[in-house]
Amino acid sequence: MAALKYSRQRESIKKYLASTTEHPTADMVYLHIKEEFPNISLGTVYRNLNLLSDIGEAIKITTPDGGDRFDGNVAPHNHFYCEGCRRVLDLKMDMGPLKELNASAQQTFDGLIESSSVLFFGKCQNCLKHPSENQ
Amino acid sequence: MAALKYSRQRESIKKYLASTTEHPTADMVYLHIKEEFPNISLGTVYRNLNLLSDIGEAIKITTPDGGDRFDGNVAPHNHFYCEGCRRVLDLKMDMGPLKELNASAQQTFDGLIESSSVLFFGKCQNCLKHPSENQ
DNA sequence: GTTTCTGCAAAGTTTTTGCACGTCA
DNA sequence: TGACGTGCAAAAACTTTGCAGAAAC
């Protein structure tokens, strides 16, 4: 069990994640942190993002378009992935309906499950309005 | 717009997907089809899985453990990803609660969304019972 | 001084693609 | 025959890892 040591790079990554709601990829984080630390490497960014995710200070969201997304908001919430523009959106729904849904799932699936988060797939407002502009 | 032509390999892949509920990875499909077509290549398996997914005859499910899963059941249903054993399970819940959840999400997110499917994350029955055996 | 972290580069994993040949219609 | 599909291998895309030196404590 390794003790955690401070690093300016990790602190900068945390600050960046806390400042945005766009759920950046590792590469987007890398490009941003590079402005402050021109020598930072992508490997360091990956190591820190995984570390933060492991200790619960960030969330990793796997999407179908290659490249995980990262979220500095670790308060319980769910996500929506737009299959049109490929953005990840925060859903600040209350957890009541989620519990109902969980219960419904448990009734039909032959065994208990305990769901902690949910990822919705579909189209966002903008892509519903302008189907031609996106794939 | 290319016309679709029959191929024995694709037919075999479809048959396999229809016969299983374990949501195999491309590699698992490859290994299975290889028993019937020893010379089939992984590239062909990927091409056919993507093709089937594109024309709506299969579903591709991206999970956080690397390697997409494929499902031959294209009837509307949702999935559960167990973070313990990394299995993908089918959820045969009715769509009522999902619509409620959607509505709840739409009220708090500033814009309409239209969700077609949902992926739950959590622990399955077996992993809840035996936490030590899985990560 | 010791442990942890970083930058770099190499390697690993999964998926896609170019091309020559084979199959379907 | 002509269009589409396959096998193979190379490449692409994304992520992890080994190592020597730097930073933290």
UniProtKB/TrEMBL annotation, chains A, B:
Source superkingdom: Bacteria
Pfam families reported for this sequence: FUR
UniProtKB keywords: DNA-binding, Metal-binding, Repressor, Transcription, Transcription regulation, Zinc
Cofactor: Zn(2+)
Alphabetized GO MF terms: DNA-binding transcription factor activity; transcription cis-regulatory region binding; zinc ion binding
UniProt xrefs under CDD domains: Fur_like
Gene3D superfamilies attached to this UniProt entry: 3.30.1490.190, Winged helix-like DNA-binding domain superfamily/Winged helix DNA-binding domain
SUPFAM superfamilies in the cross-refs: Winged helix' DNA-binding domain (SSF46785)
Entries under InterPro entries matching the protein: FUR, Fur_C, WH-like_DNA-bd_sf, WH_DNA-bd_sf
GO biological process: negative regulation of DNA-templated transcription; regulation of secondary metabolite biosynthetic process
Binding site for Zn(2+): 82, 85, 124, 127
Family indicated by similarity: Belongs to the Fur family.
Name recorded for this polypeptide: Transcriptional repressor
Organism the protein comes from: Mediterraneibacter butyricigenes
